[in-house]
């Protein structure tokens, strides 16, 4: 048993569980510096770093909440408890890591696993992480604590019975759940709700209780058609459990990034909370990853501390508030510290922090929630009713390409419409702005530029903004007139086909360059890096991509064109018809900000298919730039990025 700090909740002494007449909940906290010793063997940076739990602990101390909690020392999990959910082989493997004398022995083991590093202290940390969650869960189940938070690492929810993965060695929460159900019948815990709000799917936990109706597993996560980590179909809403466990597994798989409080609360109000009422758990275990938090480098979502506090508060209504939080992921140190504090304040029964979610859920959020309800309503009658129209109409606007690509209007129609619209604009106010400068006007409008080629690598994209030449490029760029860097960068996946074609380019030499088919195709995915820039800057990128001068008197893509592309889905630009990237495609919208990409026209796609324009794999330097972008953006491992590019380059269109 290792003691974390000197303070203990028992020191609440004379207030006897009450402060100023208000009843104070008994909240357990576990933190142990020993778990910080698990680190990369070579000292290389890694998002799952020791400071994660340190900053959380420091934040809680600084805010003065640790003194109001019962601070527990960590404890080591017992092998027999780990083996309730893990194989003997797996437990032996994790234990044996500490007996290895040399880094290379551990590195060899780690290299066989998916997204795992190991050092001499990994084993000990893993035992403490699992043991600490068991300890808090036991004390909450006994009634010695009302609720608690185990601030542990390594995380657990990706770990499967026989496999460590996704930064996880033992499945801490699953071990605790299984311990209560199987080892402590005396505590009377018969039904456990596991809520997993980590941005990634809790694949390990799902599998461990797949056929077990005593555990209702609920996971909300980025899924994006199975492309988000841990990729595949496991996180799909069709995965409802099997045998006696059928209906006791619920996945809410987001189709897109950038989900925030409104999206999560919609999943709470229209899926989790009604089901929890019916299930009526004896205790709740919360796989509390904070990587859906705003600012997280891996998650790309935007849940605020306020959002987390409301989600937690809603869960406190069940199981008489018996809730055990266990840290999972979360990689922005500031975000995880603030979110953790907001949650502990809710556990303590403090008023939730200030905040509000003015935004509406995405349209895709309502689509997912409706699909989940439909799939699960046979098991949970509270999900039977259709959601009122009035409710689901409260949303941010639709990805228009999904609509426009399913109808059969041609590019000619588009041009006719554009002509009509620009005439309208001239009658209104186009005249004076054209003579002053189109730049001032377009600088006021933000768009997301979605890149899928070399621009995914930030240093290369910045050449189009700030000018210059990044590694691998044969020629420098002039840059944009406005050299300010992108305001925000996020990653997203879109159902379009990526391919490579044309013989060679000035910038990269011999070899094909990336295009994405402007038409939606649900069988394919293009990973894109989205940069929030102004419409003026977007024009400068368009100029450079299409080998045109940036000091033009008129923009390639003005406000009328923007409006058109939002309605029509795509628009090929007359003035760039000799360029290769003269087709602007709207992939969707976030609030008022459209997501735009540039690619070839539909007629060029036909020519790629017929062979009139050649398909070509990318040159080495160019492919490496894409791979670098995908890896440094946290989207893929190097191997996965290579496979993704290879696949796109080798399959026929
Ligand atoms: N496949 C947790 O948040 N990403 N784990 C690797 C290449 C792994 C996240 C990207 C993310 C694991 C607990
Ligand atoms: Zn995660």
From TrEMBL:
Q: Quick check: keyword Phosphoprotein in the entry?
A: no
Q: Where is the Histone deacetylase domain?
A: 46-346
**Which GO cellular component terms are attached?**
cytoplasm; nucleus
EC?
A: 3.5.1.98
Q: Which UniProt keyword terms apply here?
A: Chromatin regulator, Hydrolase, Metal-binding, Nucleus, Repressor, Transcription, Transcription regulation, Zinc
Q: Which InterPro entries match?
A: HDACs (IPR000286), His_deacetylse_dom (IPR023801), His_deacetylse_dom_sf (IPR037138), Ureohydrolase_dom_sf (IPR023696)
- The organism sits in which domain of life? Eukaryota
Q: Name one GO molecular function term.
A: metal ion binding
Please write the reaction equations for the catalytic activity of this protein.
N(6)-acetyl-L-lysyl-[histone] + H2O = L-lysyl-[histone] + acetate
Q: Name one GO biological process term.
A: regulation of developmental process
Where is this gene product found? Nucleus
Protein name, UniProt field: histone deacetylase
**Highest lineage ranks of the organism?**
Eukaryota, Viridiplantae, Streptophyta, Embryophyta, Tracheophyta
């Amino acid at each position: 048993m290792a003691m974390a700090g000197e303070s203990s909740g028992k020191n609440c002494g004379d207030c006897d569980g009450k402060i100023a007449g208000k009843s104070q909940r008994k909240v357990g906290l576990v933190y142990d510096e020993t778990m910080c010793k698990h680190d990369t063997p070579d000292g290389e940076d890694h998002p799952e770093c020791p400071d994660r739990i340190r900053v959380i602990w420091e934040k809680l101390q600084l805010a003065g909440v640790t003194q109001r909690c019962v601070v527990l020392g960590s404890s080591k999990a017992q092998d027999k408890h780990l083996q309730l959910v893990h194989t003997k082989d797996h437990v032996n493997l994790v234990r044996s890591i500490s007996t290895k004398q040399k880094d290379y022995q551990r590195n060899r083991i780690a290299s066989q696993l998916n997204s795992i590093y190991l050092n001499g202290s990994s084993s000990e940390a893993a035992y403490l992480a699992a043991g600490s969650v068991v300890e808090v869960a036991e004390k909450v189940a006994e009634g010695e604590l009302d609720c608690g938070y185990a601030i542990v690492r390594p995380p657990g929810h990706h770990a499967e019975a026989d496999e460590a993965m996704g930064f996880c060695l033992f499945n801490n929460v699953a071990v605790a759940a299984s311990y209560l159900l199987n080892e402590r019948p005396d505590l009377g815990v018969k039904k456990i709700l596991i809520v997993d709000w980590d941005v990634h799917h809790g694949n390990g936990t799902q599998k461990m209780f797949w056929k077990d109706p005593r555990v209702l597993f609920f996971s909300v996560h980025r899924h994006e058609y199975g492309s988000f980590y841990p990729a595949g179909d496991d996180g799909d809403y069709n995965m409802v459990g099997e045998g006696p466990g059928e209906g006791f597994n619920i996945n809410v798989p987001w189709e897109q990034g950038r989900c925030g409080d409104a999206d999560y609360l919609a999943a709470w109000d229209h899926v989790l909370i009604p089901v929890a009422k019916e299930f009526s758990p004896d205790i709740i275990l919360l796989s509390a990853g904070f990587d859906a938090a705003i600012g997280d480098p891996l998650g790309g979502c935007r849940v605020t501390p306020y959002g987390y506090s409301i989600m937690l508060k809603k869960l406190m209504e069940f199981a008489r508030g018996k809730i055990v939080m266990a840290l999972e992921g979360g990689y922005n140190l500031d975000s995880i510290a603030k979110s953790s504090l907001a949650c502990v304040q809710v556990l303590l029964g403090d008023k939730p922090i200030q905040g509000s979610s003015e935004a509406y859920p995405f349209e895709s959020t309502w689509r997912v929630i409706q699909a989940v309800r439909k799939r699960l309503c046979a098991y949970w009658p509270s999900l039977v009713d259709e959601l009122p129209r009035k409710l689901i109409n409260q949303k941010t606007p639709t990805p228009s390409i999904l609509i426009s690509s399913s109808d059969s209007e041609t590019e000619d129609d588009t041009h006719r419409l554009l002509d009509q619209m620009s005439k309208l604009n001239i009658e209104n106010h186009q005249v004076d702005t054209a003579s002053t400068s189109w730049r001032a006007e377009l600088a006021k409008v933000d768009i997301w530029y979605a890149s899928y080629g070399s621009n995914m690598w930030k240093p290369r994209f910045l050449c189009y903004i700030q000018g210059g030449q990044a590694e691998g490029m044969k020629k420098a760029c002039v840059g944009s007139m406005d050299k300010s860097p992108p305001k925000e960068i996020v990653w997203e996946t879109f159902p379009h086909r990526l391919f490579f074609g044309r013989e060679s380019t000035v910038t990269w030499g011999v070899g094909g360059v990336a295009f994405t088919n402007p038409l939606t195709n649900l069988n394919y995915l293009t990973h894109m890096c989205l940069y929030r820039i102004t419409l003026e800057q977007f024009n400068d990128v368009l100029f450079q991509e299409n080998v045109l001068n940036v000091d033009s008197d008129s923009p390639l893509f003005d406000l009328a064109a923007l409006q058109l592309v939002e309605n029509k889905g795509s628009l090929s630009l007359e003035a760039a018809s000799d360029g290769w990237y003269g087709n602007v495609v709207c992939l969707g919208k976030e609030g008022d900000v459209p997501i735009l990409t540039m690619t070839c026209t539909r007629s060029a796609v036909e020519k790629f298919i017929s062979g009139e324009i050649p398909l070509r794999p990318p040159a080495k330097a160019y492919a490496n730039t894409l791979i670098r972008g995908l890896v440094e953006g946290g989207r893929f491992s190097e191997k996965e990025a290579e496979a993704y590019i290879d696949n796109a380059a080798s399959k026929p269109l």
